[in-house]
# Entry
Amino acid sequence: MINLSQIRAQFPILNREIHGKPLIYLDNAATSQKPLSVIEVESNYYKELNANVHRGIHTLSQLATDEMENSRKKVQKFINAKHDYEVIFTKGTTESINLITYALSNSGKLSKDDEIIITHLEHHSNIVPWQMLCQRTGAKLKVIPINEEGILNLDFLRENLSDRTKIVSFNYVSNALGIVNPVQEMISLIRQNSGAWIVVDGAQAVPHFKVDVQALDCDFFAFSGHKMYAPTGTGVLYGKEAVLESLEPFHGGGEMIATCSFEKTTYAALPFKFEAGTPNIAGNIALGAAVDFIENIGHETLQQHENNLLKYAQNRLLEIEKLTVYGEKAHRTGVVSFNLQNAGISSDVGMILDKLGIAVRTGHHCTQPIMDFFNIAGTVRASFAVYNTNEEVDALVEGVKKAQRMLS
Ligand code: PLP
# Structure
């Protein structure tokens, strides 16, 4: 059983008011709130540990290094990577995906006859870096279409896999609609029909359920710390050892070299080859505290609570006439994305909800192709975290009804 009052007590921000009303935070897919344990670990680094990592012989530097490397091990276990050096710290999913695309072109891994497959359900950060890679290399981008429910057309994937396919990149969970893609099935298909490397954008997966990168058998797995209770500016790129070893670095600079001279520079071992410059030490250490926070609650407890919330929210919202839920029948987690028909645009609804202390996201959610598919400018998106309650969902529903009255 989940102890919600105990969990909520760990989030100081949940005590604040917005426009004189208690904050109801339903914008967790954008970024989650942070528990005290994470906030304290981060501030404690500056109070007690602040020193640069991997460079100093002095005690403080060694302590900071130990803490950060300990956090890397926690992340390794969290996603069940085989080795801790397969976990590269980045500043988020966007940087993780850009790292892959630049490492690929720096390594001369793609040329004009090659193909990259993504899906219609992607966040812009899993579209634009691939488009830029195609511009640099001449490779071609193909897009798996969706149906009216937002479900991917796997026949398209099957028919388009070939020796030319070098990369297939897709999200585990859509941030705009909350749809959970059949990644295991997709990965088997790709493995059977091509030698492509598989990139999974796990930004909306890791906050909600257990991920096992070895069981998935993906080549890369990218996610953001700040969506899973860790500070902003934190994220991870997991890569299989052999794949990472075969790639040139993305950024050059300090920390990522083994030797450096004007004639020749050699690179450091994994993961440091891909971690040029001073990292976000405080944030990376606090990411480990966020992993502890999730694991202390337990994935099953967390997942069950969030699934119940989503089901409750969807059922209650659908009681409202002239309300469309996108991807209503698809397998989803964490997100309900909807619009009121004939009652303003999503931002009008969002503004009315804000006046009631309810934070939701409105607009295209960095997924303009999905909005174009549904022929809409945006949606209202309520997204859940472990601290949300049914009472907050009730307040959302009342707020949406009020918005409908005011706008129609
Ligand atoms: N991919 C997905 C599915 C997302 O939801 C997001 C953020 O909303 C991103 C990528 C980009 O994450 P970040 O802004 O943390 O780099």
User: Anything to note?
Assistant: The mean pLDDT is 97. Residues 343 and 408 are 5 Å apart (CA to CA).
